[in-house]
Structures are given as C-alpha cells and as structure tokens.
Amino acid sequence: MEALQKAITAISPLSAESMTEFVNAWRHWTAPKEFVLLKENTVADYIYFIEKGVARIYYYKIGKEITEWIAMDGQFFLSISSFFLRRPSHLIIHTIERSEVSGIHYDDLIRMADKFHDVERLLRKMVTWSLILSQERMESIQFESAQQRYERLLKSSPQIVQRVPLTHIASFLGITLETLSRIRSAR
Asked: What gap in Å lies between CA 83 and CA 43, rounded to an integer?
C-alpha cells in the first residue's frame, strides 16, 4: 500500500487520520493476466490503482475492440461515467499482464469524502485530472499526426511497447496496425 499512499500524496496530501482510514478502505488483488476487472454492461463499482502491471480499458465498436486507455504501474483508472452515474458501462477493463491492483468501492469513497474534507479534495483533483487527460487525448487525435501521437506515447510510457501488444497500442493511438508498423520501422 506504500505505492498507493505515494500516488495519493502526489495528487493531494491527506492528514494522517484520513490517510490511514482511506487506505484501509482499499481492497487488494493479485490479478492474473487477462483478469477482468469490469465486464461490459455492468456498473463500475471501483476506482482502481495499479501498483505493478498493466490494465486495458476498451469497448467494442462494430465488432472491433477499441482501446480507450492503458494503465500502467502507479496509475489510477476507472470507467468514470459508470462509476459516478451508477449506470452500466460500455467499457471492459482487464489486465494485460499479472498485476497488483487495489480498488476502492464507490460507497466507501463517498463515505470517506463525506467524512474527510481532504479526501473530498483528493477526489475533486482526481476527477479534474481525468477530465484533462481525456481532453488532451481527444486533442491529440484531432490535431497530431500518427507519428506525433506515437512519439508522445513513447515519451510518457517508454516501456509500453515491451509490455502491451502492438494491436492495443495502435487502437489506443487511433491508427491501424500497419500504420504503426510503418512508423516503428521508420524510426
């Protein structure tokens, strides 16, 4: 739970009392490769933190898997609309490799946010950061070339090509596998 505490503190420090109670509310899983954390058409009950490993968030469009997000070591992830609106998600979340994952249930998070102002502030900052990442991703797809998106991904997650299948990376970048192969061979 040390990695979780560090990640929380990096976003918004908590008092000793709220940190202890907040961290104790998180469940921990050692998830094997291809472990499903969220099934399609179910309500997302957890915000997840991946201490070590890789998880993929994706959906189906016209029978094809579209990767929306790839979470790696030290990152939080969730199906945000399903989690907060309490409605079934179109997204699927599963691990790509054996992973150490923690999650806090919606009910526990809301209870903690009601009880501790600093947890409420943490939640606000997490949601804000999630919205910023979503907008940056959309702007990247709209305004950057495939080459620029790939370079940005390598800069932010240099180990991604060793740990995530190229088909998922291409889908995440909004390009075909063939285009990704051309970009990689030109480097």
From this structure: 7
Count of C-beta atoms within a 10 Å radius of residue 173: 23
Please report, for residues 63, 68, 77, 81, 136, the alpha-carbon distance to residue 71 in angstroms, rounded to integers and kept in the order given. 23, 10, 7, 17, 16
DSSP state of 32: P
* Tens-digit pLDDT profile for residues 96-132: 999 999 999 999 999 999 999 999 999 999 999 999 9
> Alpha helices of 30-165 — where are they, by DSSP H?
80-85, 106-115, 117-143, 146-156, 160-163
pTM score, two decimals?
Answer: 0.93
Q: In the beta sheet, which residues pair with residue 185?
A: none
